[in-house]
Model the fold of this input.
Amino acid sequence: MEIQTFKKMEKQALKSSRPDFIKIGFALFFMVAVLMYSFLSNGGVPNSMFLAVAALFGAYMAMNIGANDVANNVGPAVGSKALTLGGAIVIAAVFEASGAFIAGGDVVKTIKKGIIDISAFGGDVDPFIWAMMAALLAAALWLNFATAVKAPVSTTHSIVGGVMGAGIAAAGFSIVSWSTMGKIAASWVISPILGGAIAALFLFAIKKTIIFKQDRVESAKKYVPIFVSLMALSFVTYLTLKGLKKVWPQIVSFVNDFMFFTLPVTKKPTFMTAVIFGTIVAVVVYFWVKARVSANADKMKNSRLSVNELFTIPLIFAAALLSFAHGANDVANAIGPLAAINDAVINGGISSKAGIPFWVMGVGGLGISIGLALYGPKLIKTVGSEITELDQMRAFSVAMAASITVIIASQLGLPVSSTHIAVGGVFGVGFLREYLHVNDTQTLIEDEKEIIEDEKKVLRALKHELETLEKKVDKEKNDYERVVELYKMIDEEESKIKSAKKVIKTAEKVKYVKRDAVRKIIAAWLITVPAAAILAGVIFYTIKGIML
Done:
């Protein structure tokens, strides 16, 4: 019997582990393909083996970005049921890769955020290459660990920590721009607070203008077009500022040559240009949504569910646009150090900016999409459903926070993290639910306490009557009947009091944000930079020891 049980357990274990082996196989195939391509295409160049290994690390880093960071863009949409998990992965993969290839730019800063001074290397290429390799591998390893424990962390902070740690190992503490690191540390606080506050404000505005009204359908006809057009305004502004900045000169050139209007010739889009684009799109969206909502108003029920469904399509667009902007911006986290190594190997020098060969961009864009498809579901579920319960309105508010916070922060020069903003937005809507629940709960508790006091008065009167009857010496038939009736009534009153106490106890215990998830995520945020830095330092000394 025991042998049969063990056989069943072994069979089940093999069955459950098969998908993991397939995922690892796909990931290894991509990494080895990148390694071979890099080595074969640059085989005649000195240090080509370093470049090939760096490409391997870059592929590993890109897949980890896809597995961890992309969840912030699509997690809320999946958690709210606006998108299925499979649909979210397809949309995110396509738009992440599109953002990287179309708007990733021709040049990337080799040292993210300017956190170390490359002149400290004194033009010595080898230590620089080792440092960038160590930074890439350390950031990828930390992201891999964070994904395994279901902690959404900032990939930018991971690579920043990796570059800082490798830089210190290579040239000492003086290489680091500590003022820049101070700003990055400030983003740990600024990003989630701003994201959470904006998400909570938007959710409260939706509740106040639509959900808390008697006629929700009429309120939806009036306010849903306004909210969706505000989303269009913020997202087009955000996309113009952050998603198109690296290819803006080419866009300006095309528009000025072929369109009936002209754009000011600038290296990157100005805030006013982005707002004008956003306003034009917002006006069009407002009238389109207004017509759609009015046309379908007769079919709508006066319920929260019907109102929720109106935010489904905007959420799908939000997931796509956030993924495009993320692909355009954060692909640099994977390919920045790799582009730096490629430039150093090919040109034999160290540069603050490097050109991006198409194959390097491919490593970033395809790697992010592959990582998302293979390992993204774990973090998508965490962000979408394991912090707080999301519906379309709450997810819409999180998406609004993601775009508006970046716009505000970029104009004020505040350092922010897109990961921290998105997760902070999820925290924000969850804590708003708790706040509103507490207000309702206080009223409920007061009502239940009044019920308890009233029932206790009745109970005391019944017990007193029972005691009097039981002391009566010459009882008649109706006295005995009354005693039985009193016992039943006393049991009923005691049950009512117990039920009211249980309602109070249950109401006081309700928490809409899972505290364990909050503590784990914040802890991961705080140690991301130092953890990646320590890993990078160890890896740098290991590479140096092997090479010398």
Observations:
- The beta strands are 107-109, 353-355.
- Residues 308 and 513 are 21 Å apart (CA to CA).
- The mean pLDDT is 85.
- The radius of gyration is 30 Å.
